[in-house]
Amino acid sequence: MAKRMTKEEAKKTYILNWRPSPPRERLGAAKFTFKPEFDSTTLPSSKDLSQYDSAVRDQADIGSCTAFAAIAIVEHIAKRNGKIPDWSELYLYYNTRVKVLGWPAGDDSGAYVSSTIKALTTYGDAGETDWPYDTSKFAVEPPLTSYNRGSTNQVVKAAYVDSSVDSIRASIASGYPVDIGFICYSNLYDSWDSGVVPMPKQGTYIIGGHSVMLVGYDNDTRQFKFKNSWGTSFGQAGYGFLPYEYVSGYTIDEPTQRLVSDCWTIASIEFDSDFVVLYQNPPENVPAPFTLTAVSA
Predict the structure, then answer these.
(1) Per-residue model confidence (pLDDT) at position 239
(2) I need a surface site. Which of 14, 46, 253, 259 has the fewest CB within 10 A?
(3) What region holds the Peptidase C1A papain C-terminal domain (predicted)?
């Protein structure tokens, strides 16, 4: 059995390179908005969609969390529809940084969630067998064969979600996991074993940002459940928990900067040239609490 990673080892391994997305990145995108009759009190008290997740993976020593979180959603959609998904995070991380953002290939610069979604809609994604995850090759452009495969694996419909507890709960309750980015403080690894992200407190400081897929919530614990990309040593077999208070909170030093932002979900994908919708019909006993509208300047 593999040795369980400790929090001290995790601190030395993982690079926290998620970046908050500039507002301009959302212009023209679809957005989830509440219907006038929607009442947040009608949502289920808890929801857990993780039974449709692909296996927990490990991003290792590069800042590719945005790619892992986005691939987690598309593989969730594929698995929900009886597919066997295995998309390439390395392919996505390269195209997000270099093709979409125009940043140097050799810079392990991280990315925005929004630009990662854009890369999936523009360049699609190769299979893991086409471009395997090898962190020493993060600066290498994938071969043409990978782009050919990517043209058959693409995100068709995505939308950003307001970074509020109710909006994210509504999305998850309706069956849609949500990718987020969150600002990380120096006490992040204190709860490595439990997976519960601790709130910032006086004396702690910002050490970076991280992106994960929120896949559940529980009103009793007041926490969202997320799929991480730090292997199964983290938290509960690779899953962690983010307090509602974290989602609604602000940084210590800048009271106008949200701790959580850049929230997106995906509604449909093309999988090996097959159009796949996450839900042909709404989940049983759950009203659809939002509509899709375009975001304008």
Answers:
(1) 99
(2) 253
(3) 43-251
Q: Which two tokens stand for residue 184?
A: 């990380």
Residue 159 DSSP code: E
**Are 216 and 48 in contact, with CB atoms under 8 Å apart?**
yes
Residue 54, both tokens: 């692909």
Q: How far apart are CA 268 and CA 213, in angstroms?
A: 16
Nearest residue to 211 (alpha-carbon basis) of 256, 172, 179: 179
Residues 6 or more apart in contact with residue 32 via CB below 8 angstroms:
159, 160, 161, 162, 167, 170, 171, 265, 290, 291, 292
Cα-only R_g, the chain = 18
How many C-alpha atoms does 1 have within 13 Å on its Cβ side? Answer: 4
DSSP conformation letters of 170-226: HHHHTT--EEEEEEEETTGGGGTTT-BPPPP-TT--EEEEEEEEEEEEETTTTEEEE
pLDDT digits (tens, 9 = 90+) for 213-244: 999 999 999 999 999 999 999 999 999 999 99
Nearest to 57 by CA among 188, 239, 210: 239
How confident is the model over 258-279, as pLDDT tens digits? 999 999 998 877 877 666 655 5
